[in-house]
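Extended Data, panel c. Modelled sequence:
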Amino acid sequence: MTIDQTVADVFDETIKALTILDLNKLQTLEERIAALAKYSIVCSKGSLSSILAKRHLLELILRNLESNLATLHRLHGRDMRDQWAH
């Protein structure tokens, strides 16, 4: 498997794991990414646009998750205040 394909697969697997909130898979992927980060990765120009598109999608998913998490924190805080008020 080429480095290009490995990077693309990691992005795909990360996106899938985030969408189903598979924390074990995310941890495994984190370890794979850490191992890849030790090396200078150079992707071919042909696969670069595909990898950048996957990266962009991952960034959108992460921003959405961050927004949803912030909303959940606010709702939880409000719910806790309401419970203490009763």
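The helical segments are 3-19, 23-37, 45-85. This feature is highlighted in the accompanying rendering.
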